Amino acid sequence: FPSPVVIIKDLDVLTSEEALYDALAEYGPILEVRLIKDRITHTSQGVGFAYFTDDMYDKKGTFIMMLMWI
C-alpha cells in the first residue's frame, strides 16, 4: 500500500518550505511540507517531507519518477 508521505533528499540548504511546497503542488494536493532543520542554527539539513492527500494516487504512476528531477 503506497504512503502519501514522500521523503525528499539532497535539497539545497537554502530551500524553504514554501519553495518546496510550490515545486511539489503541481503533483497533487499537499497537506503539509516539513524540512528537517538544525536545532541551533535553524538551517535546513537538506531533507524534507511532503504529506500528500490520497488524491495523488489518482495521477499517473510516474509521480515518484517525476520527483527525482526536482
Report on the structure:
The two termini are 24 Å apart. Helices cover 19% and strands 30% of the residues. Strands 1-3-2 form a three-stranded antiparallel beta sheet, with helices on one face. The chain has helices at 17-24, 63-67, and strands at residues 5-8, 30-37, 44-52. Mean pLDDT is 79; it is low at 65-70. With 70 residues, the chain is an alpha+beta fold. The chain is built from two helices and three strands; from the N terminus they run βαββα.
Please give the structural blueprint.
Blueprint: E1 5-8, H1 17-24, E2 30-37, E3 44-52, H2 63-67
Antiparallel strand pairs: 1-3, 2-3
Structural class: alpha+beta
Reading the helices and strands in chain order gives EHEEH
The side-by-side strand order for the widest beta sheet comes to 1-3-2
General form:
elongated
Q: Counting H and I runs of at least 4 residues, what is the number of helices?
A: 2
| Low-pLDDT regions | 65-70
Number of strands: 3
Tell me the strand percentage band.
25-35%
Radius of gyration: 12 Å
Q: N-to-C terminal Cα separation, in Å?
A: 24 Å
Instruction: Report helical residue fraction.
Output: 10-25%
Major β-sheet annotation: 3 strands, antiparallel
Rounded mean pLDDT is 79
